[in-house]
Amino acid sequence: MDREFLLKQLQHENRRFRNIALMDPLTGVGNRRALEQEIEHALSESTKKGEAYFAAFIDLDNFKQINDNFGHDAGDRFLLAICARLKNNCDENDFIARIGGDEFVVFGKIPNECDNGVASAIQQRLFASTVGNIDISTMMINYQGASIGVTVSEEGEGVESLLQRADKEMYLVKKQRKKMSLN
Predict the structure, then answer these.
(1) How many Å apart are CA 182 and CA 153, to the nearest integer?
(2) Which of 117, 98, 109 is CA-nearest to residue 39?
(3) Helix (H) or strand (E) holding 119
(4) Closest by CA position to 52, among listed 2, 112, 9, 106
């Protein structure tokens, strides 16, 4: 009896540690390792089923200024608020991961009925999650929004390629936003 109890307890602890290893400790969403596993699994299935997926690379522009002006606690609350907004504005099957200090990736399946403007529609939906007044409990931050690059998976594409293309799209958006703010 003791042996069976100890074995179940060990299995429970192993599951708990595996979950911790795949989770961002601040936001509770997946981390880079979890994201890569999720994408790898989905893309391998997509070849069999003829499905397409999107990856949206999100960079919280001027996040350093929030930390510098209001402190790291406010920065953490800002990240939590953005994460909550992303969760509220994503489909329930979309996968959200925090992959860096101020970088997130949203990954999900594209509905079959979508047209060629799907990447733009996803980008607009996610941008709406990041722009406007962000309540961080001690104050409101009027945030100008994140730079978001969205790309759609190509047949036979791997994890690294998909993420690199989304990252490249994000940098193009960031460059365009900077150019517009100078005018």
Answers:
(1) 33
(2) 109
(3) helix 118-130
(4) 112
Cα separation, 67 vs 181, whole angstroms: 22
pTM higher than 0.85, yes or no? yes
Closest CA to 46 of 107, 106, 109, 118: 109
User: In what helix (H) or strand (E) does residue 174 lie, and over which residues does it extend?
Assistant: helix 159-182
Active site residue 102: yes
Rounded to whole angstroms, how far apart are CA atoms 183 and 62? 18
Overall residue count recorded for the chain in this entry: 183
Is residue 87 exposed (0-12), middle (13-18) or buried (19+ Cβ within 10 Å)?
A: middle
Helix (H) or strand (E) holding 74: helix 72-89
Cα–Cα distances in angstroms (integers) from residue 81 to residues 28, 100, 145, in the given order? 12, 16, 13
pLDDT digits (tens, 9 = 90+) for 102-140: 999 999 998 765 666 889 999 999 999 999 999 998 899
Rounded to an integer, what distance in angstroms lies between the CA atom of residue 142 and that of residue 98? 22
Amino acid letter, residue 133: N
- The one catalytic residue in 2, 102, 115, 135 is 102
Residue 90 is classified by DSSP as S
Q: Residue 150, SS3?
A: strand
